């Protein structure tokens, strides 16, 4: 079942951010745009490259009013240890959520039960806590965080301009479409 258009399910978890432990819940995904990035586990191979790439895009995402959260099966303690020991992860300033009980991974339908870890899932969530975009990659396929920028701009445009949609390869300032009977068969 698709999660698109559904509200984020309730959860409570511990997280690590900027040298501090904190508690987070689904409420933290509301009031601004959010990107939630699931990855299999800390101290692995592809994961640090993705999370570092996400950090590189973090300032541009923040300019769009987006907050970023990463989630893995590891505890907030493990996130801190990884942050302290890895050059790539040490750069991260966004929130790293621990999901050792797999509640969040199940809520987002990315848990691989037999492995006890999440697929590489990326979710764009609107300020109402509703999922607007989902991307899930196989374990060996790393993501490119730069692709989030245009997706978020398109999602924000559609939210702010009811009745309009963004076509393929849409860029900010480009033409949009107003679906109507007149367009059927003409595109």
UniProtKB/TrEMBL annotation:
GO terms for cellular component: cytosol. The active site is at residue 47. It is found in: Cytoplasm. SUPFAM superfamilies: Thioredoxin-like. Keywords: Antioxidant, Cytoplasm, Disulfide bond, Oxidoreductase, Peroxidase, Redox-active center. Residues 2-157 form the Thioredoxin domain. It is an enzyme of class 1 (oxidoreductase). Its EC number is 1.11.1.26. PANTHER family: ALKYL HYDROPEROXIDE REDUCTASE C, THIOREDOXIN PEROXIDASE. Thiol-specific peroxidase that catalyzes the reduction of hydrogen peroxide and organic hydroperoxides to water and alcohols, respectively. Plays a role in cell protection against oxidative stress by detoxifying peroxides. This is Alkyl hydroperoxide reductase C. The lineage of its organism: Bacteria, Bacillati, Bacillota, Bacilli, Bacillales. The gene is ahpC.
């Amino acid at each position: 079942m698709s999660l698109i258009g559904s509200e984020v399910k309730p959860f409570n978890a511990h997280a690590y951010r900027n040298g501090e432990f904190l508690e987070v819940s689904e409420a933290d995904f509301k009031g601004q745009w959010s990107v939630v990035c699931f990855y299999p586990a800390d101290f692995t191979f592809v994961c640090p490259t993705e999370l570092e790439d996400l950090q590189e895009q973090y300032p541009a995402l923040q300019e769009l009013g987006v907050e970023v959260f990463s989630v893995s099966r590891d505890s907030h303690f493990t996130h801190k240890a990884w942050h302290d020991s890895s050059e790539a992860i040490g750069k991260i300033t966004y929130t790293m959520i621990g999901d050792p009980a797999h509640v969040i991974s199940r809520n987002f339908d990315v848990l691989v039960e037999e492995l006890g870890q999440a697929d590489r899932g990326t979710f764009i969530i609107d300020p109402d806590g509703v999922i607007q975009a989902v991307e899930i990659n196989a374990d060996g396929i790393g993501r490119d965080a730069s692709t989030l920028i245009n997706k978020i701009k398109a999602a924000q445009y559609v939210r702010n301009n009811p009745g309009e949609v963004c076509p393929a390869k849409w860029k900010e300032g480009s033409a949009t479409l107003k679906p109507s009977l007149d367009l059927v068969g003409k595109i």
